[in-house]
User: What shape does this take?
Amino acid sequence: MTTPFESAVLLTVRGAYIPESLEAMRVLHNSTAGSAQGIAAARSLGDLSHNVYSPSLRSERAGAREGELLFIDWWDSPKGIMDFFSNPQVQQQGAKLFSGRDASLWMPAQGSSSYHLYAPRTSPERYVGIVRGTVKSPQDAIAVFAEADVKAQRDARRRGLISHELFIKLSPPGESAPAELLGLDLWSDFAGMTQQYSDATHMAGLADAFTARPQTSIWEQPAGVWSEW
Assistant: This one.
């Protein structure tokens, strides 16, 4: 199974927000990037979707702290992203939202065992599990995940996994940074997700995919109504 947008790219933006509370950040986000005008501008350049997550602080593996947010966007081309974020007005809005942020662009990892399943109607909650780290060889890392994924997918689905995707970071032209892999899981059950990530039977071998200990984090849908599309 493959990702739904073979030619599209993923944009992740993780940062510490400036407003004094999550609710204040929600209001600011919805009046800037999430306003009708902001959404129309992003869509006109190829922004296919935009979702917002906050750290899941009840998890021992949160890997993030209060005051951070994560944006996950699908775009239909890297050029649209560059055109959008080169706009001075967009840059000004971004400066109001985050005091510091990491914006990274990712392409689907070709040959990976990514899959998307339908969530049961009775499981409306959404959680995101992320693993990110440098790899010596994207092909070798994908193979390590593929072997583990085949063994884990039945238990993972039983525990609430909705989708599992791997990505390779797109670096700017001329940059010689080590290859970086992103694993992104979407879950509908917090307890099941926690159980899966604590299951050494399935998780231990994934460390072999990375050149050093990867960064991991757990995110959930924040309170309130956020502008998403």
